[in-house]
Amino acid sequence: MAKAKAENVPQQAVQKKKRRGVPEKYRLFLIALPFLALVFIFSYVPLYGWRYAFYDYKPPLKLSQCDYVGFKWFTMLFQNKGWVTQILNVLKNTFAMSGLGILVSVLPVAFAIFLSEIKCKWAKNLIQTLTTLPNFISWVIVYSVAFSLFSTTGMVNSVLGDLGLISSPISFLDSPNHVWLKMCFWGVWKGVGWSSIMYLAAISSCDQELYEAARVDGAGRFRLMWHITLPQLLPTYFVLLMLSVANILSNGMEQYYVFANAFNKDKIQVLDYYVYTISMGGGNTYSLGVAIGILKSIVSVTLLIIVNSISKKVRGESIV
Length: 320
What we know:
Layout: H1 2-20, H2 24-44, H3 72-79, H4 81-103, H5 106-116, H6 121-132, H7 139-150, H8 155-162, H9 179-204, H10 208-216, H11 221-246, H12 254-259, H13 265-268, H14 271-280, H15 286-314
């Protein structure tokens, strides 16, 4: 009896300690609270600036000193043929860039699968580190590297000229040809290693008994990749794919801003870069840029709702 009481004392102490502590659901919320605060600060607080779209805002003045114009800037987008032509061209570039990004979204999956098959640990870590580092390099530095390599006086043209393969320098950067493919290439180079991390984590959580059973049945490495690893990654891939479709109008602007020049501007100008250009280009176009940004956000939310509905019907799962 004394032994049983002695064993019950630690258990009772642990239960009292658990009762005194914060419940698990609240602890998880407290862990997520800083990130929720950051999302609120950087994603929702800036929405207060949408009010500029309803005024004829002139930067030297305060907003209260500017005229309220209602939906003037929204209607102008559809009534002015010049604006309509520009926006259609910008949308064409945006959809092209986003479409290429969606097409190459399978590359991180393939890269993660083949990287997981490397048995040499130091070689695997080295490759993963070298392919992840470009994600932390700013686009300004990326353009500096591209300029050093592919400008008319860069290393590539110099080597080709010394070998006698070309008689005049090739314009890689200041040419309107194949701009979409060039931007896609730099995007893949910068992000494929970072994008594959999520798939590598999913591969590490795969049930190893499936692999062992397949090996017993005589499956080789490619059979294991095709019939076990790839199906395990498809749910994660489809969720990210649907989010990419919902954000098809959001390409960012840093990459296109640094690579843009007078020769490729018509091909490289995507929606985010266009909004920045007309907002910061001088004149009374700041309010117009905000109006375009509002329309872009509305379309993105609509696409997200549509994609989420399709996901519910096709996969039986919701992404939001």
